[in-house]
Amino acid sequence: MIINWDSFTPLASLGGGILIGIAALFLMITTGRVMGVSGILSGLFSAGEPKLWRLAFLGGTLLGPLLIYTITGTPIASEMVSDGWLFYGAAFLVGIGTALGSGCTSGHGICGLARFSGRSLVAVITFMTMAVITVYVIRHSGLGG
Amino acid sequence: MALISGVVFGVGLTIAGMLDPSKISGFLDIFGVWDPSLAFVMAGGVVVNAVGHRFVMRRSVPLFAPRFLLPSFASIDRPLLLGSALFGIGWGVSGLCPGPVLGNLLLLPEKMGLFAAIVCGGLWVGRALKQRLEKSRVD
Predict the structure, then answer these.
(1) For a disulfide at A98, which of A104, A110, A141, B76, Cβ 3.0-4.6 Å?
(2) CA angle, A14 as apex, A108 and A78 as ends, to 5°?
(3) Are B87 and B137 found together in one domain?
């Protein structure tokens, strides 16, 4: 195994992760809700689900990075790794997959694992494994663009 | 309150490096030149949340809502496995999961606008599909 020391950011990533954990705790103790982005988003399309807290949370998620950009003045690194039909096809898979699987990296990954949910553990192992295989195929098999 | 949580979440994603698809892809590329950073995001988030959750659950109700709404469904079924597998492929190809899609939306609106719209379309289709599968199981 070769480690990419140039892009390795253990402290910033740990700090960011801790903030994500705090955000999840804060949402749970105030609203009683799980901080799962795909679930919060898909609840917007369901009649009878309360919308206000969802819109407030999602609005905050939109604003957080903008706040950092405004304070620091440095552009936030965001380099795309695919384009065209692959990129937009992936968007559809992310949407349909997280709806069918009842959660994404935040809901299953951060919140589900913290509650020792068996469903979430299976979900995380499944999407991590598929994502690792997908990246391997794209980068090393010669099949990807 | 949900707004504050969302802002903290968005700031956390940014500091953690989660908004950068090339960094996500570098984490998933364990057979190449591997960037383990995102394991630290996961560890920080899960440990803080797991420890804090015990204290939160000592309360019988949340501060501003009538009750805690936690998933009670426990069985590992086909929608969970199929959905998570499809999500994994999409995440691997794009390096984007739903949180960072939103986090990037105002920074890169021209690139992320259509992507976010398609994610929402996928969520809508997936939700309808899941309801149909659950209904057929009950019948």
Answers:
(1) A104
(2) 80
(3) yes
Q: Using CB atoms, pick whichever of B8, B23, B88 lies closest to residue A23.
A: B8
Tens-digit pLDDT profile for residues B30-66: 999 999 999 999 999 999 999 999 999 999 999 999 9
Contact criterion met (CB below 8 Å) for B130 and A46 = no
Do the chains contact at A100 and B103, CB–CB below 8 Å? no
Measured in whole angstroms, the distance separating CA A83 from the mean position of its chain's CA atoms is 19
Query: In the structure encoding, which two tokens stand for residue B90, read together?
Result: 């999409």
- Same domain as B107, residue B66: no
Same domain, B63 and B4: yes
Contacts of A141 in chain B (CB under 8 A): none
With CA atoms as reference, report the closest residue to A26 among A63, A57, A62: A57
ipTM: 0.95
Query: In terms of residue numbers, what domain contains B123?
Result: 75-139
Judge: A24–B56 Cβ closer than 8 Å, yes or no: no
